[in-house]
Amino acid sequence: MTALLREVIGEVLRRARIEQGRTLREVSDTARVSLGYLSEVERGRKEASSELLNAICGALDIPLSRVLADAGEEMERAELAAVAGAGAANIDESTKVVIPQVVSMAVA
C-alpha cells in the first residue's frame, strides 16, 4: 500500500529537522505550533494545513516547495516500486485467458 501524502510530508519534515540537529521543541517554538501537534504532523497522524506547513518550513528555513517536491519524489519512487513489484509477479505465466467469441442473435 502506498503511503499517504501526510505521512511522506511528515517524514520529509522530520528528516530536515534531524539533519539540522534541532529538537521538536525548538522548531515548535519558532513555528508557534504546539509540540504535540508538530510531533503528530511528523509522524503522519495529522494533516497539516498549508498555513501550518508554511510556518514549520519557515522555522526550519526550508522552502515549502522543496518539502512538497521531496515528498512528491518519494511518493513517485514508492509508486513505481509498487507497480514493478505487482506486475508479472502476481500472474502465473502458464495462466491462459479464453475470451469467447461474441455470437449475435437475430430477433424476428
UniProtKB/TrEMBL annotation:
SMART domains: HTH_XRE. InterPro entries: ClgR-like, Cro/C1-type_HTH, Lambda_DNA-bd_dom_sf. Keywords: DNA-binding, Transcription, Transcription regulation. GO terms for molecular function: DNA binding. Residues 13-67 form the HTH cro/C1-type domain. It holds the Pfam family HTH_3. NCBIfam families: trans_regClgR (NF041677). This is Transcriptional regulator ClgR. The gene is clgR.
